[in-house]
Amino acid sequence: MLEAVAGVRDFFRFGPAQADHLSAARIAVGIAPPLLIVMALGRVDLAVFAAFGSFTGIYAKRETLRRRVIHQSLAGAIILVCLTLGLLCAHAQVGGMTIVLIGSVVAALGAVVAASVGFKPSGSVFFVFAFTSIAALPTPPSFPSGIGVAAATVAFCVLLGYLARILPGMGGGAPVLGGSFTRAQLAWHGGQFLVVALVAGTLGQLTGVGHSNWAMVAGIAAIAAPDAPARVSRAVHRVVGTLAGVAVSAVILGLNPDPWPLALVVIVLQFLGELFVIRHYATALIFITPLALCMMQLGNPLPVEQLVFSRAVETVIGAAVAVGIVMLLGPAVERVTRRR
């Protein structure tokens, strides 16, 4: 109960600005050329691979130049592995529950690597999002084209992260080092991600509304926070921000924009989402939610009503699972955390 009260109170707290527009601009530039190039080549089906590759630039925004290059390179490599695994599943046409099972393992392993290395943002949400989204594609592209676009985008984003040293306020900050975790603590940490992803994804499958991967993403995004109050707060932000973002998505997609205007909307939304993601998570999700939906619509158009409804339902499921796990495992988590 105390965690819930703390989560609600934290919802109204807005963090201070820290030159967020600079990193947001860099991340938006990271997606713009690759996305526009594949659009110009007439390969709209590859737009989603450019988008996932651009997630590389989200990592290490406040770190020293050397650590940024290392962390972005490693995060980009993991994203490429997840995309490759997703393509394998897509070409094999595996079932939804199989995607949930594999995605849960990706969530656990990704969280362990992120904790060991000291990734910021923490957790495995981008790895799971990349794998599950590609694995569910009904008509996947070839490996050379899909992974090639993603790899080129990853390299471009790492280069931008390096060149950002010439911008004022973007020369790097304090280094973020990996945590001093024992094997048991890492196993416990990964286990929480495994359980939340598996339960949320399974419940998402049982609802039958589709896109159970969004339940998984919502759940692990919440538990990526460092402690119980922060996790509850993150879940509250996730639900409120996503529901508001779903309304924005319905307006944008309801206009039935052509692929080119939709691609430009994706770039703008990427900038706006990163502008607020550190200061206020719910506000960022007002832009991140339509960003994700517009990304998926570029390569795999679906009825707008089905898309926004499933996003809302699955997000509530994932957030509820995360809060439930926090309440059940809270005392045990606190004991393990104190031993670090």
UniProtKB/TrEMBL annotation:
Topology with respect to the bilayer: Multi-pass membrane protein
Chain ranges of the Integral membrane bound transporter domain: 200-323
Entry's transmembrane regions: 35-60, 72-93, 99-117, 124-141, 186-206, 235-254, 260-277, 284-302, 308-330
Keywords: Membrane, Transmembrane, Transmembrane helix
Highest taxon above the source species: Bacteria
Major subcellular site: membrane
Pfam families listed in its UniProt record: FUSC_2
Compartments in which it is found: Membrane
Record-linked InterPro entries: Memb_transporter_dom
Protein name in the entry: FUSC family protein
Organism name: Tersicoccus solisilvae
